[in-house]
Amino acid sequence: MPSAPAPRLAPLPAPVRPDPVRDRWTGQMRLAIAEAALATATGDVPVGALVLGPDGTVIGRGHNEREAVGDPTAHAEVVAIREAARAVGEWRLAGCTLIVTLEPCTMCAGAIVLSRIDRVVFGALDEKAGAAGSLFDVMRDRRLNHRPEVVHGVLADECGDQLRAFFDTQR
Ligand SMILES: [Zn+2]
Where does the record place the region Disordered (predicted)? Predict the structure, then answer.
């Protein structure tokens, strides 16, 4: 099967002190990491995402299934956003939070903006393709009319290790 190019990942240093901004999301990020693990069964790059409703409950989840379904748009975030929109019954996901193990790409950052999600929490940076500050900063571009809050670096080491372990098996 075709192997995807490895994203270049820059792990952040492990926090040495309590970090109220990031610590709040570690439980949900662990769920996203577990979701990401499901991707490898089909040879997909392990990226996992959750959408939390305004009350914090999970209303959408997805893992990268590009190889599984042969769909170039089947990134974890898009899969989770579609499920969340079905659950809510409309396309607007105002008040929702998206948790994802890897920095969103340009497509996913665009989908996040279009869905009106209020907050994005991600783990590892993707310096090669990331659109949340690495290569582009789509979600905080002041020319767009919706800009979610972005929290990065939640369990970044664990998220990055999961990806590195996958790409090590592909060599
Ligand atoms: Zn993407």
Answer: 1-21
Tell me if the pTM is above 0.70: yes
Gap from CA of 20 to ligand 1 centroid (Å): 27
Residue 80 DSSP SS3: helix
d(CA 104, CA 102): 6
In this structure, what are the phi and psi dihedrals at residue 101, rounded to the nearest 5 degrees? -75, -25
Residues shown for the chain: 171
Cβ-based neighbours of 38, under 8 Å, separated by 6 or more: 48, 63
Q: Report whether 147 contacts 139 (CB < 8 A).
A: yes
Residue 96 is assigned to a ligand binding site: no
| pLDDT tens digits, one per residue of 107-150 | 999 999 999 999 999 999 999 999 999 999 999 999 998 899 99
Cβ 65 vs Cβ 74: under 8 Å: yes
Please check if 105 is assigned to a binding site.
yes
Å from CA of 74 to ligand 1 middle: 8
Any binding-site annotation on 159?
A: no
pLDDT in tens, 1-46: 566 677 777 777 666 788 989 999 999 999 999 999 999 999 999 9
